[in-house]
Amino acid sequence: MLNRLSDLIRLRTFATEQVQPVSGANLAALSDLLPGDQVRAYIKSAMPDGTFLATIRNQPFMLSVPFEAHAGDILQLSVLEREPQMKFAMVKREDYAGLPTKISETARFITALLGETEKLPHAPLAASSAPLLSALPDDSRQTASTLRNTLAHSGVFYEAHQAQWVAGERELESLRREPQGQLKPLGADPPQAAPDGDAEQPAVVILDKAPRLPELPVHRDALAMIKQQLDTLESGRIAWHGLIWHGQPLDWDVDRQPDNASATTDVPPWRTRLRLTLPRLGKIDATLVVAGNAVNVTLRATDAGTRSEMTEQRSSLQQSLRNAGIDATAISVRRDDDL
User: Fold this and answer.
1) DSSP secondary structure string, 45-101?
2) What is the DSSP letter of 104?
């Protein structure tokens, strides 16, 4: 695809019924380009009329491409002329080596960081060994709030929370509850782990043999968390493992589903999955796909008696969800011997 030097790409703004028109302001983003200058176009999707939705300098455009492109393709373009219509030519793949490149400080930092964090083992978001709940739950709202706060204070969203704090939308004390907020300045005494019974202050893992990143703006004791952040960003999935109450381990995943995964709402659905082994019911797997106020519940169990009891209680669960303002679109109970 990238070796078709003779292929020309004509640029135009949105003007079809299938796409919301945008103003000509996006063309202003290219006003500094002169013939011979080069830019990259990122193909987002194909349109019904044969054109392609793409972004150039973070601005949306429609591209008329004389060959079949696909979502995710990156086109290296060279400006042929600006008037009367902006025109580009494809740059051959072998010509890339001669292009002037400059890597930013941020790119160099991320490259070095990725190289160092690859040396660390993959680990889920286990804040500490302390149970989330001090006793068996008797209030579902409190349990839900505790689980939500566990993710919120896990450190994965620390930088986003910093931005909220700068904007006055989050208290400083909330930041200090996250692992990064408990790190002492480099050269100071290392932070101490929270007491076993203190579930509100997750322990900070100190890596005595953590790789060092000289001349890079990162705390060495934050490397494990940074790896988790990078893994989460790449996979779109948050994984947590720990004790939900004393003696009761819990595996918990949260991930965003594809935008077309829900046929009942325009809200992008989220999936949450909890796996645990209960003393009486045995191995349980509960998967909930949530989109707006609608939820699809799938319960899996290895024990036949447990599945029978779950089936009998489905109507009660559906009524409880309805009382909480949640529309249970489906509740299914399935056998799973692989739990």
Assistant:
1) EE-TTS-EEEEETTEEEEEE-SS---TT-EEEEEEEE-SSS-EEEEPPGGGGGGS--
2) -
pLDDT the model gives residue 204: 37
Does 251 fall in a domain?
no
CB 298 within 8 A of CB 287: yes
Residue 1 placed within a domain: no
112 assigned to some structural domain = yes
pLDDT at 291 over 50: yes
Query: Do 115 and 107 meet the contact criterion of CB atoms below 8 Å apart?
Result: no
Q: Which is nearest to 334 in space by CA: 295, 304, 294, 289?
A: 304
Number of domains in the chain: 3
Non-local (6+) Cβ contacts of 245 within 8 A are: 131, 132, 133, 134, 135, 136, 137
Decide if pLDDT at 8 tops 50: no
Domain boundary among 39, 73, 98: 98
Least confident of 4-18, 63-77, 198-212: 4-18
Average pLDDT of the segment spanning 15-34: 52
Q: What are phi and psi of 109, to 5 degrees?
A: -65, -45
Signed CA dihedral, 139, 141, 147, 153: sign only = negative
Confidence of residue 135 (pLDDT cuts 50, 70, 90): confident
Residue 208: which domain range?
Answer: 103-236
pLDDT in tens, 66-100: 667 788 888 887 777 777 667 777 775 544 455 55
Do 123 and 88 sit in the same domain of this protein?
no
Start-end of H helices in the chain: 25-28, 105-117, 140-152, 158-166, 172-176, 223-235, 304-312, 314-323
The identity of residue 329, as a single letter, is T
Mean of pLDDT values over 171-182: 90
Same domain as 90, residue 110: no
Query: What angle is formed at CA 64 by the lines to CA 63 and CA 68, rounded to 5 degrees?
Result: 100
Q: What is the CATH number of the domain that holds 329?
A: 3.30.750.140
